[in-house]
Amino acid sequence: MKLVVVTAGLSVPSSTRLLADRLALATAGRTSAEVQVVELRELAVEIAHNFTSGFPGRELSAALDAVTQADGLIVVTPVFGASYSGLFKSFFDVLDKDALTGKPMLIAATGGTARHSLVLDHALRPLFSYLRAVVVPTGVYAASEDWGAEGLDERIERAGEQLAALMSGLSAKVPRPVVSTGDFEVIPFEQQLAALRPDA
After folding, report:
1. Is the pTM of this model over 0.70?
2. What is the pLDDT of residues 117-173, one digit of tens each?
3. Is the distance from CB of 114 to CB of 145 less than 8 angstroms?
4. CATH of the domain at 170
5. Is residue 179 part of a domain?
6. Residue 25, CB-side half-sphere exposure with 13 Å CA sphere
């Protein structure tokens, strides 16, 4: 499996990249996924050129391919003007509109104050719902005061666990076994649905 992390941090070092790395560790530690990080800061010029030319440069093309082929995604943006950054949005604007359909995803953001934490549900979640990704229930927002404070580690671990479970479930090729309860058998809904398909 392949886990791709898209981070839109602008500074070096970056709290956005730090959060992305911790989320990747929490997820990959529960799967056999190989992790690839896409730093949007390094692709800013190629993203801008893509808008004017209609064609991605070599590095941007490789990043878009990585995201398209990923088994799971972690996306992390800094908050600017109470929303995701322009660089972050621009990357997903040049991505093929169907590339994220059904793809497991974890959303996260960083900001200077806890007042921006609603960016997860009011900006990021609607964006990726529109792109038809499957976003895990737990999003992670880290304000400046959250680093080293109680609660952030637990949110990171919970989100990583949810993404790992979703990646493993969607990538499994072996059908679930029938569960026996003694007097009768419980057949999973997915298995019943598969039996109704004409090609089954």
Report:
1. yes
2. 999 999 999 999 999 999 999 999 999 999 988 899 999 999 999 999 999 986 544
3. yes
4. 3.40.50.360
5. no
6. 8
